[in-house]
Structure formats: C-alpha cells, structure tokens
Amino acid sequence: MDRLTIPAKFVLVMAFFAVPLAITSIQNIVTMQSSLSLAEKRRVGVELQRSAFDMVKRIEIVRDLSVFSRNAANQEINHLFEQNRAEALQMLMAFEARPEVRQNQLLKLSVSSLIGRLQTFRASSGSEGDMIGTIYGSAHSAVAKAYSLQQEIANEFDLSTDNDFVTEQLLGVLSDSLPKSYYEMGKARGFGVYFLETRLMNSSGIKMLEETYVELWQAHEQLENSFHLLITSQGGLTQLDQIDYSSLNSVLQTRQMLDDYLLLDVDLQAEWRDYYDSVTQQIGLLHAVHTQLLDFLSARYSERILQKRESLLHRSVSIGVLVLFTTYLFVGFYLSIRNSIGLLVNAANRVAEGDLEEKVAISAKDEMLDIAEMMDEMRQQLRDRELQLVAMTITDGLTRVCNRAFFNQELPARLEKSRRADLPVCLLLIDIDYFKKLNDSYGHQVGDDCLIMVAQAIKGQLLREEDSVSRYGGEEFAVILPATDSLGGLATAERILSAIRRLKLELVGGQVVTMTASIGVASSAAVEQCSDDRLVALADESLYKAKHDGRNRCIVYKK
Known about the structure:
Helix content: 55-70%
Mean pLDDT: 83
Distance between the termini: 48 Å
Low-confidence stretches: 125-130
Number of strands: 7
Structural class: alpha+beta
Number of domains: 2
Strand order of the largest sheet: 2-3-1-6-7
Number of helices: 16
Shape: elongated
Radius of gyration: 34 Å
Strand content: 5-15%
C-alpha cells in the first residue's frame, strides 16, 4: 500500500462505505446514549414533580385553613388544620426518603427546610391585631417553598433546559399560570370561610373580597391565554383527550361562588362548610388538570425513551458489523502512513513549542509531502508574523485599525464594565468572502488594498466613540459594541454589509473588484456570566453559519 497515493488509499477504504458510516454511527450512538440518559433523567424529574405537587395541594389547604382557624372555639376547623398539616408532613417525610432526593443535597436541604416550616407552623392566635390578609401572606410562604422545591427539581433534572417547545410551554403553565390561579382561589377559600364562620365582615373585608374577585378574573384570563398558546402553537396539545379543558372554568366558578355566598349575601347566611367544600371541589378540578399535564409530560418522555432505545439498538448492531468488516483496511491504511504522520506530528510539536527555525521535512513521496510543504510554509508565515507582532502595539500596520493585541485586551475589559453596569456587549466577527480566491486571482497587493478598504468601511459605520474595530486575523475583523444588544448589533452589521457591498477597487485596465462579507453577531446577554472566550465562540458559530448559508449575510446567535 506504500506505493498508493493518499486518494487511492481512501478510495480503497471508502469503496465499502464502512468507514464513514461507522464513524458517523459511533458519534450518533454516543449522542443518542447521552440523549437517552437525559430523557430518563427528565422523566424521573417529572415523577418527582408530581409527588411534590401532591404535597403542594395539602400545604395549600393548611395555608387556607390558617386564615379561618383563628377562632379557637371552632374545633372542626382546628381539627381540619391539624389533620391536613399532619398529612402534609407525612408526605414530605416520604418524599425526603426517596433515593433521588437523598442523593441530591440541594433537594434534601429544601425538603428539610419545608418540613421544619410546617412543624413550627401554627394557625393565627386570633388576636385583634391580626389581619387575615397578613395571615394568608405569611402562611403562603410555606406554599412558596413547596413551589420553589418544584422549580429546583426542574433545574436539577434538566427539565428547564429542554428546548422542546411544548415542554417549555407546559413548564411555564405549571410554574406560573396554574400557581397564580391556586393562589387566588386559595384566598377566596380562606377569606370566604373566615367571614362565613365569624358572620362578621366590615368594609375592609368587603374590599379584600372585591380585590380577590377581580384577581380571580385576571388569573382566569392568564390561564386561558397560556392554554390557548399551548393548544394552538406547533400542534401543542390538540390531541390530548385526557385533559379536561373545561376544568379551567373552575376559576370562574370560584369567582361566582365568592359573589353568591359573600358579596351578594350581606347577611352571611350560608354555612362555611358548604362554601369550603364547594370551593375545594373547584380547586380539585384545576389540580386534576395540573396532574394531567404532568402525566402527559411523563408520557412524552417515556415515548422519547422508547424511540431512543430502539434507535440505539439498531445503530449498535450496524456499527458492530461494520467495525469487524473494516478492521483490516484500517490497519493497512494506518501502517502505510504511520511514519509520515509521526514526522509531521513531531514537526507540529516543535512549532507549537515555539521552534520556528527548523524546516518541516519528510521522506515520503505521496500527498504527505504536499502537507509537509504546506506546514513548512505555515511555519515560515508564523515566524514572519511573530517578528511582526513584536514590533506592533495596538495598531495594525496594514489596515491602520486596531490589532488583535488590542482586541484581546479590550474585549475582557468591556465585558467587565458591562457586568458592573448590567449592560450587554455585542461582538461582530466579519470575514471577507472568498478572500483567498481574490488573492489568487489578482495578487496579494490587491488583497491588501481590499483589506484596507474594508477596514475603513467598517470603521466608517461605527457611530460611537466607544465602538471599536480590530483586525482579528487575515481577512477577519472584530467589532466590539459596548452597551448594545443583539438587535443593535444586527443593525450595525447590516450597515457594514451594505458599506462593503458598495466598495469598488478599480484596477489597471479598467477591471473593477467588488467585495462581500459574512458576519457573525453575538451578544453577552445570550448566556449567563458570559466570558470573552465564550462570546468569541458564539460569534464564530454565527459566522460559520453565515458562511454555510451562502455568505454575504449576517447571522445573530440565538439560544
């Protein structure tokens, strides 16, 4: 095989289509295994969320009972309060004993804190200074801790990082719209039963109920809007027969009960237990929707897991057959080029260690020799650039804009200032399209003239003194835009593109050279605690996409 050229060797191996397929399959298997593990982890998270929600329902009752259990003489209410608190504690302790919780220190601490809160929780003393609104707000802290536990579960089990649209919208409904409705319905239950049990309601009580009456309508509107988005967007939940959407009207039903039992009955003749049971029934209907959504989410992950397991099995069998079939070909190919690769690796290590004087040379006569010559040319270019960089400060000698050294200092400094001011920094990476072809066609002098024109065109589109353009390397330029978000960066990028398109370089003989560029745009607001390396990587990713999509355009990085 030593007499064959590199293309001939590749043709021999690729003739069987095994190598590229095997490599791709291995990569897919690793990706699929990781995706499978993540789906299984998320399904466990949904199951934990359902268990946590069962606790939330019980703690909500404890919260509401705390408002009207201030009457120590009402033994039935006190019994309900203590019974539900005991059941909530029992559920919390069972939840704390689960292996998934014991193995997660954050969840374990949160559950322990919630247990301690309920153990020391007491109903109102019934003193005249107590206001039921204050009592309810204080008691709600236990419910808030329970919902915070659900959010921690979502974070710890990567539910909140799922980019699936339906899952993302579902989590929004479960963590925002539904809890808002529970909160207002709980006020209606707690305040209403208090007034019916005491048979006394002053003007401040009427005002409180009227505010709750309005807030129930607002909660219903938010809930309706959230579910409408879920149902209509991207095929959302239109085929979910198990979800009873009519139960969303339970918020309005509770609102109507508040009106009928209290606001329209100034004599407060209704029995508190009838009102309590009726509102509790409506809250239970909405709780059922919550549970149905969690069941749907769990089933969605189960379906993903099943599909991924089947795909993983099929792919594993295929790759096993291909590996056995191509082993001999790989061994022969490796032995034929091992010596050449070893020499090239040694040469690359010398260059990496800063030894730019020794020439890169190998004894092979195939295409490896071409690679060695190219590496030696790169070595010479690196040596020349190293000598140039020694003499440079912050100005590029050719284009007369800032150089890479300036950029390396400026970007971290701007990011640090932006963090203190809580403002974003936008980075533009600009690459002249087909610049090598331009150099090959017209020569390096024309290429240099184009670089100078492009650099000045970019600089001319920067409207603020603090904006800066640097020659990032070769035909690439970097623009730093402090206090600018993605939209502002995109506007600047589009102006730069237009300016570059208008450039014309007239050559001897009347020939005219025109240019275009590709631009990647990224804002530090795209990720939390964005570092300079991360921001450059995001902009470079957008630049790569702009070039991949056809060049002569700008692309903004999106999460």
